[in-house]
Amino acid sequence: MANISAALVKELRDKTGAGMMDCKKALGETDGDIEAAIDWLRTKGLAKAAKKAGRVAAEGLVGIAVSGSQAAVVEVNSETDFVARNEQFQGFVAETAKAALATDGSLEALQTAKLAAGASVEDTIKELIATIGENMTLRRVAKVNVSDGVVAAYMHNAVAEGLGKIGVLVALESTGDKEFLNTLGRQIAMHVAAVNPIAVDASGVDAATIERESAILREKNAGKPDHVMTKIVESGVKSYLKEVTLLDQPFVHDTSKTVAQVLKEAESKAGAPVALTGFVRYALGEGIEKEESDFAAEVAAQAGVKG
Question: What is the CATH number of the domain that holds 64?
């Protein structure tokens, strides 16, 4: 059996809201595999659906750049929050987001893209590492565009224009009023930042995710007749998809309506049909396991003081 640390138990508890002893037991049953432990808790009815974007953290900034009918979002990580407050670092992230607009949206293309000073993004990072004295990484990039319409942006916890902790882009295809569409798109982007949907609609949810939910439902209802099990799984998956897909979610600005209903009602004000064709949500540090350290011990070690 894996050695279950208190930190691992706490992480599972933070992600699921389950009791400490239940979390410890789940980790013991799954040899310390936290994702498997989340599923184990859910099959026992002890946890809500896991929010993988949850509580892991890394430092740095998310940057957004918008130009006409296209926009880009990047994430650049650093070791400490001090660097994220550095004007030189902030300028680099902002310039990198703008550079992404002229690429195909791939990480490889952005790394070799030239910045205003003439150096590539990759070489500029190396220079910053040498200057600031801290490791940095261009982690990911996404580009969104529309043929006609707007790509609206929202930055949560902004530290400067287009820079912050959670960046969202929402693509609205429409020949309608652009100013109105941009306002509507920003409201939907705020919804995405708050609720964190995994796809626009059910067609965008991958088969592996649906199978995972189905397996959890089958395990929770083990022993039921096949015809009953089929209905339970179908109903449960349908409910799950409504919870995690953007168009079916209650709109955070008016929970009496779904996002799909809000879009339909907006068509009269836009003066044309409106289609939400995609979105991107980047939360800083999402999915990165950050090693916790004893800051006092680090300072003492650097000063040559033994504990």
Answer: 3.30.479.20
Dist. CA 62–CA 73, nearest whole Å: 7
Which of 20-29, 52-61, 158-167 reaches the highest mean pLDDT? 158-167
Residue type at 156? H
pTM (2 decimals)? 0.75
DSSP 63-126: EEEEETTEEEEEEEEESSHHHHT-HHHHHHHHHHHHHHTTS-S-HHHHHH-B-TTS-BHHHHHH
Residue found by looking up tokens 């209905």 in the block: 231
pLDDT reported for residue 289 = 58
Q: Are residues 16 and 105 in the same domain?
A: no
Taking CA 90 as the corner, what is the angle to CA 89 and CA 94, rounded to the nearest 5 degrees? 120
pLDDT digits (tens, 9 = 90+) for 35-45: 888 888 878 77
Question: What value does the mean pLDDT of the chain take?
Answer: 88
Instruction: State the total domains in the chain.
Output: 2
In the sheet with 166-173, reading across from the earlier edge strand, the strands are: 149-156, 166-173, 275-283
